[in-house]
Amino acid sequence: xxxxxxxxxxxxxxxxxxxxxxxxxxxxxxxxxxxxxxxxxxxxxxxxxxxxxxxxxxxxxxxxxxxxxxxxxxxxxxxxxxxxxxxxxxxxxxxxxxxxxxxxxxxxxxxxxxxxxxxxxxxxxxxxxxxxxxxxxxxxxxxxxxxxxxxxxxxxxxxxxxxxxxxxxxxxxxxxxxxxxxxxxxxxxxxxxxxxxxxxxxxxxxxxxxxxxxxxxxxxxxxxxxxxxxxxxxxxxxxxxxxxxxxxxxxxxxxxxxxxxxxxxxxxxxxxxxxxxxxxxxxxxxxxxxxxxxxxxxxxxxxxxxxxxxxxxxxxxxxxxxxxxxxxxxxxxxxxxxxxxxxxxxxxxxxxxxxxxxxxxxxxxxxxxxxxxxxxxxxxxxxxxxxxxxxxxx
Length: 394
Hints:
The protein has 394 residues and is mainly beta. It has 1 helix and 33 strands.
């Protein structure tokens, strides 16, 4: 069973990138005031005021600030996505695909097809290229904050995987190691959590030290704390909180009905104070504290409809923008009740705010639309052929 991470394909890169197979998807002005990254059927695309440009087989950092794109069959190119300019390039062997980019943009983890029950992994970074030959089915997930380790998904059983555990690849020794508990103790053998890939979404914390990952449809899952204590949990959804500097993990449980609806009905967002999880299928919105990782409240979102993919954004002014299908419901964390309802021209496929909170961008089939958050009125739409999800706004 695969996670939500998308392997991007295509044969394109920006026109400024010498040596790449390139294509300007559209050079027509878009009216976009920010820089957007979107997944399309042709690969990753960069969208700005000047037009839409394809980046092809590429991956971005969690905030969208840095991109690594494959150049031809053997090249790798690092891009500054805001400036749209190349930073550096290198030549690799054939078949490598960018999978994870560090938050500082200095490193990229790449994989190529597995063979003989082993996973080849390449790290391109400040010290050059290093190759690892790992036993089993391994998927890179996130770099540690200091760049000396790589969190990976270790799939089980290796020959017919249907679940995984999160482990740490020590980039100095090449060994796979268990994570630490929140009490900063190594997780002993037999107590590592095994998770399934359904409903998996991830966002970076405001201080870049934590990675919050939402898991749904996890019946029978037992947390490390249960395995250590000999107790059992009955939870179908939780937020996996991974500290990228201290290397510990903790699972924040979500109450029923979270985990009962279809995976597309869930959305995750975070700011400096709150982790928010939306279940559009039940109209439930959960808030948790980023300080002590405890659930604070669950409120009802009176959606006019509860079908279609969901989207969620937390505005700097304290508003919460929750989307289901074409409808955006605006709430405030500090007080109950609906403040406004806005309408999108198409069903939401990824949603994010501009840095100043003035514009709400939403992906839709073959397009990106943005609303003025002061009025809720549509401020613009630009065509993006084959768009499958809006990923980042920078």
